Amino acid sequence: MKYRPALRPLIPALLGAAAVLAACTATPLPPDAPQAVGPHSAGRTPAPAPQVATTPGMIIKTSMATNARAYRQDAASHIYGQNSERIWKGRMPPMLYAIGVLQVEVDGQGNVRNMNWLRAPRHAPEVIAEIERTVRKAAPFPVPARLGKVVYTDTWLWHKSGHFQLDTLTEGQD
């Protein structure tokens, strides 16, 4: 193999740097520290657990989501927690009264700043109003600590009884 004369002096330095890097090892986690598992977790440190910020008379959760899709899980769980008596238990029936796709903007303090219907159930304006009321009443949402603010989208599956599921946490349909 031929080397260019100008690169020849660099070869020992590059080999030395490669040897140093190969000798480096990762510092192991303490035995009680949580470890990430799964095929995509190699070399990653697990995200810290969500924290809870408190204000007088109110507990505000903190989301450690790193993208809107992950935040959607936290938001759906929050809405379910605020509306446990209105959540449809089990699989939804095949014919639903309304289905709506709503985009929600949450600021850095968990407040709802904006809502935008991507698919509104126009045949059921009372459902549109009730979903918007439910979202506003659920505020403050978990604070999107890593995102600053977030715009997430979820699909509302609405039964004529007024019970609902969110697509993110749905148990499916018969």
UniProtKB/TrEMBL annotation:
<feature type="region of interest" description="Disordered">
    <location>
        <begin position="32"/>
        <end position="54"/>
    </location>
</feature>
<protein>
    <recommendedName>
        <fullName>Energy transducer TonB</fullName>
    </recommendedName>
</protein>
<keyword id="KW-0732">Signal</keyword>
<feature type="signal peptide">
    <location>
        <begin position="1"/>
        <end position="22"/>
    </location>
</feature>
